[in-house]
Amino acid sequence: MVSLEKKTPEERLNICRKYYLGGFAFLPLLWFINAIWFYKQAFKVEPYPEQTQIRKYVIRSAIGTFVWILIILVWNIMFQVFRTKMGPAGDYLTFVVPPNKTRIRDAYKRLIILNHPDRGGSPYVAAKINEAKDYFESGAK
């Protein structure tokens, strides 16, 4: 990374402005980098004429980063909640790691121990657990 101390105030302002404007090209990582990289120049060093503009870009970059993170989180949560209601499109957009026989066996053991009729569990639930195990093992490698 370039040392900002070696740059003139005009060059710092120009770099800060480019990172800020680059964030509008759907590159919010640039806003994050801008906010972190120029924080010291905007708030911690002795005042100079371009500092007020740099401070403005740093604050806006931090806000832009926060907004993008919020948008991504909300989208992710909404997708996870409503994925099953999307039908085939939700399944197509979702990457599911196929289970292997070891994972199926381990999950089966945990569930059947908790729900076995000899230990007070429901025969119906135990039958459904066995059904699920058979179903997944028939498709697992």
Estimate the strand proportion.
under 5%
Overall strand count: 0
Estimated helix fraction = over 70%
Task: Give the termini distance in whole angstroms.
Answer: 48 Å
Main pleated sheet? none
Mean pLDDT: 89
Give me the Rg, rounded. 27 Å
Q: What pattern of helices and strands is seen along the backbone? A: HHHHHHH
Number of helices: 7
**What structural class do helix, strand and pairing data support?**
mainly alpha
Q: What report would you give on this structure?
A:
This protein is an all-alpha fold. It folds into 2 domains: 4-90; 101-139, Helix Hairpins. Helix content is 70%, strand content 0%. It contains 7 helices and no strands. It has helices spanning 9-22, 28-37, 39-43, 51-82, 88-93, 101-115, 123-139. Helix 1 runs parallel beside helix 4 and helix 6 packs antiparallel against helix 7 (123-139). The two termini are 48 Å apart. The model has no long low-confidence stretch (mean pLDDT 89). Belongs to the PEN-2 family. Keywords: Membrane, Notch signaling pathway, Transmembrane, Transmembrane helix. It is a multi-pass membrane protein.
